[in-house]
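Deliverable D5.2: sample structural annotation.
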Amino acid sequence: MLKIFKEIRKRILAIRWFYNMCHTQRFNFLFDDSLWPDWKGDPKEIFSPDKLCELLKNSDSESRKVVMNFIEKVTLDMNLRSMNFTLSYPEYSDKNAEEYAEYQKNEKIESIANGIPALLEESFFFHHGMRNLPDSVKKYVCNKIFIDGGACFGDSSLMFLKYHPEKVIAFDISPINAEIFCQVMKKNNMLDDKVFLILKGLGDKNGSFQFMDGFSGGTSLNLAGDCEAETVTLDSCKEVDGTVGWIKIDLEGYGLPAVKGMVETIKRDRPVLTLAVYHCADELFGIKKLLESLDLNYKIMFRSCRFDGYHELTLIAYPAELDQV
């Protein structure tokens, strides 16, 4: 851990130098607040040594590398955003150059073929982290129910079919996304009993709230709008009438409440989890802590589901005994 903290300190000092240099007007950047707008506050407090130590405890080297890279980018973004500046980062890391070229080659072709507005890396290439997991994990989820939390326009639900689910139950609060989702499923000849959408959000309680709808990831849960959505806990969802094998969520910062609302399902079925944790500190620090408190012998890791190596930071968890199969 001492080595990790020395590396973190070195990066923080570099960021501080860069931050100070910005005040000299020796750098000039374009403003863009679309990266991590929900990360607010003092980075030194948010990413304190104690919090990082707890977050990275028992993590593998790749998890530590990915998390530190993510924190470096978020910290820099937070500092620059306070001055109405931000950076544009490379779309891929050097080690992923060949894979990125493959993705670019097939993106438009598969997007048109599937009727999806955009072919997202995290779903169609990285499979929300499942692609690079052991075969034993992929076999473990077969013929079980898959949960797509934050279904958007159906890209993840279509990808799920590669892993032979009993059925896919998708959740999304956006009527705009829901219309596209249904069109995509129809184009791909998906029957309602195989993939179906519930126009509700996943949370830690059943209720409702106002939100601003928008195309794809433009739906904002932090801005009151003229759309009303219901929330439901996965534990109380009657449509989940069998064993759950895989839960994927990407809920624009509401990941922790969603996980709180599925604790009994997780305890009962021990599904594979691929959970987006990049939206806010509650997701990044809170979800791992909650899962560890359940004491279910999960192997937990962090991976980036983008070619750049830091966007779409995802917590992946699966029963540890699957590594022995």
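Annotation notes: The chain has two domains: 2-26+38-81, 94-324. Residues 23-34 have pLDDT under 50 and may be disordered.
The annotation will be released with the project's public dataset once the embargo ends.
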